[in-house]
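Morning F.,

Quick status update on the modeling queue. The single chain you submitted on Monday has been processed. Sequence for confirmation:
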Amino acid sequence: MSEHAEPVRVVVVDDHEIVRDGLVALLGALPEFDVVGVAADGRAAVHIVDETRPDVVVMDIQMPVLDGVEATRFVTARHREVRVVMLTMNEDDDTVLAAIQAGASGYLLKGSGAEEVRRALLAAAAGGMVFGASLAGRVAALFAGGRRAPEKEPPFPDLTDRERELLHLLAAGRSNDAIAAQLFVSNKTVRNTVSSIYAKLHATGRADAIIKAREAGFGRE
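Structure tokens below.
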């Protein structure tokens, strides 16, 4: 057992069922961990984290609905105590740094061994920053060299996190009823939030808002 008195509560997020099942089986066989939820896309991950409040989220990057970096941004903004460890095939420098900038506490490649994953999740749960053996040196060199992820202003900076979340669903073509059901809020709340989004985007209506949102990358599968 790790230094944690209780098992580390983990949510596993990956759009490939075989990967999810493999991670759940791996972590479920270890007494240090308790898998409290799984998700197949970033949007579902945000809701699962809201519901279960895990210690650590194991997050893929390339996923439908909402990618892992953006989902990490939502999770860490809502729940600062939750640690996110990326587990992905993507190892390019900009993606690694974008994930860290979004609030990730670690970054592992899917080729990592079971023991490396175990140690990384325990370290993240204890408050550490963790990187796979093949990435640690590169990450240190990037920071030592003063490199930063591209400092682009996010689209629609006036939007709140909730408005940004709802805009993703709006741009994906969801109706108000569907959005209310997915976000567990009332239709009135959705209508009020949509009106606020229109005002901040200077949109003339729903179609105009969707066009602006999709041009900015929102709502894409």
